[in-house]
Design a protein that fits this description.
The chain has 651 residues and is mainly β. The protein is built from four helices and 51 strands. Helix content is 5%, strand content 42%.
Length: 651
């Protein structure tokens, strides 16, 4: 089994030996001298599309995983598994010891979650200094590294992966097959499905152009970013490396796409290998910054190290971490830092959440209820008085009533597979459809009398599925308006309310009156789950979480529930104020779940491990937050039923 471990290796030394992109017979020497000239880090340019298009390309050769040494393939298999495995472990002092069998370690890891960050930049190095001899007037750094064991495969600084779906990250890969060693400066493609190696700089003399020595530390200065504020599958990601010889950035690789990675990281040294690894005496980094696509600017990390600098050296056994000892990060967005002397532990810092309310254009007494992200980039919400409203991300609202029958009481709303918005009419006993141009069509045929349609969600089968609270049924409506009702397997008087599509190809719904969560297949087969749900819980809204589970609010129990697709329920109450009256719930772009507290007048956040934080600043008195959704801008949007407002929550 492969482990992620700290490893002492010097990445510029490997490349200066001429080993880039090829094999070197025998073992690598233990020491090598590098001239310690000082290269100033450049002032970062404004990364416009025109600027990026004007850049020169580094000399690359493509690399197929099948052509790599066998040890290198461990990276593809182990990287994702190691991150997931180690994020669940408690942090512990490394104290300079090698990891034991079954343990894993990393050195110098930064993780940032969501927010506006779509890029990361930094000068990174990993090294073992022995002496600093003088050669004439030019000082040299004598660095060393052990040769490593046969079958080892190490990833070395830089490894810079932005959050929000980046496709590309650079790294240096060192392998030892036992018969030969290999060093590759490569671009990793995270949109290729298996962390494909897209290419290497194919000339060791060219590689040396990209090695600078800052404050006596040799390393690479790389940028990975997209300029899109909200990355999509059509976003172009750029991987740039600074050419110190020619004082310019060169393009190492570019890629169109969107990966599943929602968190970013910077790894100085990590090893995937079997057996014991050497100690890591020190690591260092400087100039680390995150690219804020919203403002088009870089935000520097602000270490609180005793040295007071952004270039940090951490000796073995030091209690200092590579960056902020208090685990704070840039600006006010979620950011977490790993202590260089600890196991890999991702611990997001509670961000300073910003909440703004918008009322302009919303009629008094309108009673905003459900809310959904539209295909047009706007938010759409229902008004129980009989309107559908649209609010753009700047807060401008337009209300629409034409085509909606009197007394309809629009309730739930969702984006449909046909590019329209679909909503329920609780009192009107109908399903409505509104186009982005506000053309409304109502459908009633096939819906039983007094059904009280409530929640609605798009299904994996291309249809819309809705709950019938009074009828204790689940309804399905095709985009053409054909309705089918399902009641078999649903307990009488259960009052289904919330509904969402699950990761298993089924629909999941809540039963308010009977303290159950139900699952219905697209063929109409229902299974109910009650084990683990407390009596009087009154499950309300439900949403798919980033962890592949379903999360729901308990209207009566004042708890958040989580149910796996196999039906295992866990309830969370710690951190939720008494009498909060939990209502809506949605997955946030930051990897957490967000929910509304109707009576408590708060917005809550719960992490995948159940840690709750409540936010009230910015919410008007008696606003009545009721529904919540993540918009196309990456922020949370909540309908405030009592205050006749819509709130934006920047996580």
């Amino acid at each position: 089994m492969a482990y992620l471990r700290a490893k002492t290796l010097m990445l510029p030394a490997l490349l200066l030996l001429g080993a880039c992109g090829g094999h070197v017979s025998g073992s690598i020497p233990n020491t090598i001298n590098i001239t310690a000239h000082t290269d100033a880090l450049p002032k970062l340019p404004h990364f416009t599309a025109a600027y990026l298009a004007s850049l020169s390309h580094a000399r690359m050769q493509s690399v197929a995983p099948s052509g790599l040494p066998p040890a290198a393939l461990l990276v593809q298999r182990a990287l994702n598994a190691a991150v997931k495995r180690e994020s669940a472990k408690p942090a512990g002092p490394r104290r300079g010891s090698s990891a034991g069998s079954g343990d894993s370690e990393a050195v110098g890891v930064i993780v940032n979650s969501g927010g506006p960050y779509t890029g990361i930049v930094g000068f990174q190095t990993a090294y073992t200094p022995f002496t600093v001899p003088q050669t004439g007037t030019a000082p040299q750094i004598q660095v060393g590294f052990p040769p490593g064991g046969a079958g080892s495969s190490s990833m070395l600084a830089p490894l810079l992966l932005p959050s929000n779906g980046s496709c590309l990250a650079p790294t240096v890969l060192y392998t030892n097959s036992g018969a030969s060693t290999t060093a590759l400066f490569v671009a990793l493609d995270f949109c290729g499905g298996t962390y494909d190696f897209v290419g290497t700089i194919n000339d060791s003399s060219a590689v040396q152009q990209y090695i600078g020595t800052v404050n006596g530390l040799p390393g690479f200065y790389t940028v990975t970013l997209t300029t899109d504020k909200v990355p999509t599958s059509t976003s172009t990601w750029y991987l740039l490396v600074y050419n110190f010889a020619l004082a310019r950035f060169d393009v190492l690789a570019s890629k169109v796409g969107l990966s599943s990675n929602k968190t970013g990281l910077a790894l100085f040294i990590g090893q995937f290998a079997q057996g014991q690894c050497p100690l890591t005496p020190s690591t260092a980094a400087t100039g680390m910054q995150l690219y804020n696509a919203t403002s088009g600017a870089f935000e520097a990390l602000a270490p609180t190290m005793p040295s007071g600098t952004t270039s940090v050296v951490v000796p073995v056994g030091s209690s200092d971490s590579c960056f902020n000892a208090d685990m704070t990060g840039p600006a006010s967005f979620t950011f977490s830092v790993l202590n260089a002397n600890s196991s890999w532990q991702v611990t997001p810092v509670p961000p300073t959440v910003s909440i703004s309310e918008f009322s302009s254009g919303i009629s008094n007494g309108s009673g905003p209820s459900g809310i959904a992200a539209g295909p047009d980039g706007n938010l759409w919400f229902t008004e129980v008085v009989g309107r559908i409203a649209r609010i753009n991300t700047s807060g401008t609202t337009t209300e629409f009533s034409s085509g909606i029958s009197a007394g309809a009481s629009p309730s739930g709303i969702t984006a449909g597979p046909d590019g329209n918005l679909w909503f329920t009419e609780a009192n009107g006993n109908r399903i409505g459809r509104i186009t982005p141009t506000a053309m409304v069509t109502e459908f009633s045929s096939g819906i039983s009398a007094n059904s009280y349609p409530n929640g609605i969600a798009a299904g994996p089968d291309g249809n819309l599925w809705f709950t019938e609270q009074n009828g204790s049924r689940i309804g399905r409506i095709t985009p053409s308006g054909t309705v089918t009702e399902f009641s078999s397997g649903i307990t009488a008087n259960s009052a289904p309310v919330g509904i969402t599509a699950g990761p298993d190809g089924n629909l999941w719904f809540t039963e308010l009156n009977t303290d159950r969560v139900g699952r219905i297949t697209t063929a109409g087969t229902v299974t109910e789950f009650s084990s683990g749900i407390s009596a009087g819980a009154a499950p309300n809204a439900i949403a798919l979480g980033p962890d592949g589970n379903l999360w729901f609010t308990e209207y009566g129990g004042n708890r958040i529930g989580r149910i796996t697709i196999s039906g295992t329920v866990t309830e969370f109450s710690s951190g939720i104020s008494a009498g909060a009256t939990l209502w809506g719930i949605a997955a946030g772009a930051d990897g957490n779940m967000w929910f509304t507290e109707f009576t408590g007048n708060r917005i809550g956040r719960i992490t995948p491990n159940g840690t709750v934080t409540e936010f009230s600043s910015g919410i008007s008195s008696n606003a009545g937050p009721i529904s919540i959704v993540t918009g196309g801008d990456g922020n949370l949007w909540s309908a405030e039923h009592n205050a006749n407002r819509v709130a934006r929550v920047i996580p």
